Amino acid sequence: MVNRTLKLGDIAEMKMGYNSINRRDIKPQSREELSKKGIDSYDINRRWLPFINIKDVREGKPLIAENLKLIAESYLDGRTMRLEPDDILLLSHGDRFLAALIPDSLPRSICSVFFQIIRINPAQHLLPAYVCWQLNRSSTMHHLKRRSVGTMIKYIPRKEIMDLQIPIPNIDIQRQVADIEEMRLRENALTQELLEKRNLMIKTKLDNLINNTRSENDRTN
Fold it and tell me: Where are the alpha helices (DSSP H) in 136-170?
C-alpha cells in the first residue's frame, strides 16, 4: 500500500558523473593491463578506482566489481564525486535509461558523465534499493523516454529526473521489494554464468571433435 508520493528531487541529491570526454590521455584500464605495466596490486588498490561505464550497466543484472576497468585517482579533481554503497546510478543518455545500485564491493568508485548519481537523503527513511527498483520499472522507463530530448543521442534533462514521482509505501513493503529484486538479480547473474560455462563446454567439445578427426586423417594419410 502506497502511503505517499514524492518527487525524486525532494528525497535525493543528484550529481553528474566524471567527464573525461576532453581528456584523451585518460583511458580506463583493466587490472591485467596494469599488472603487465609493472604496477603491483598494492598500488592498484591504493591509487586506482573502479570506473563504471555505459556497458557495465545491463538490464536485469547487478554491477560486478571484478568486471570493471580502473582509472587513476590522480586524474580526478576535487569536484569528482566518489560513489558510496547504496548510491543509485541512472543512465541518462542513450536508448535505455537503466538504473543500478552501487554494492558494498564498490567503495570509492566513479562513473562516466553519462550517468546521474542519485544519493538518497537518509532523513527520508527510504531504502535506496527500493528507489532503484522504481526507476527500473517499465512505466518509469517509458515516462523518461517520452521526456528525453536530443537528435543524435537522446538524453534526459536534469529537471525531468528530479520531477519524477516516486510512490513511497511503508518500510516493510520497501524491504520486501528490495529483497525480492536482489534475489532476482542474483539468480539472473548465476543463470548467465551457467549459460556461458555451458556454451564454452559445447564449443570446446566441438573443437576437440574436429581436431581429433584431423589427427586421425593425418595418421591415415
Answer: 138-147, 158-162
Query: What are the pLDDT digits (tens) for 133-150?
Result: 999 999 999 999 999 998
Segments of 24-114 assigned E as strands: 48-52, 69-72, 88-91, 99-101, 110-111
Regarding the domain with residue range 2-169, which homologous superfamily does it belong to in the CATH classification?
DNA methylase specificity domains (3.90.220.20)
* In the chain, domain spans: 2-169
As a whole number of angstroms, the distance between CA 186 and CA 178 comes to 12
Which one-letter DSSP state was computed for residue 184?
Answer: H
H or E element in which residue 167 lies: strand 165-169
Phi, psi (degrees; rounded to nearest 5) at 131? -60, -40
pTM: 0.81
What letter does residue 50 receive in the DSSP assignment?
E
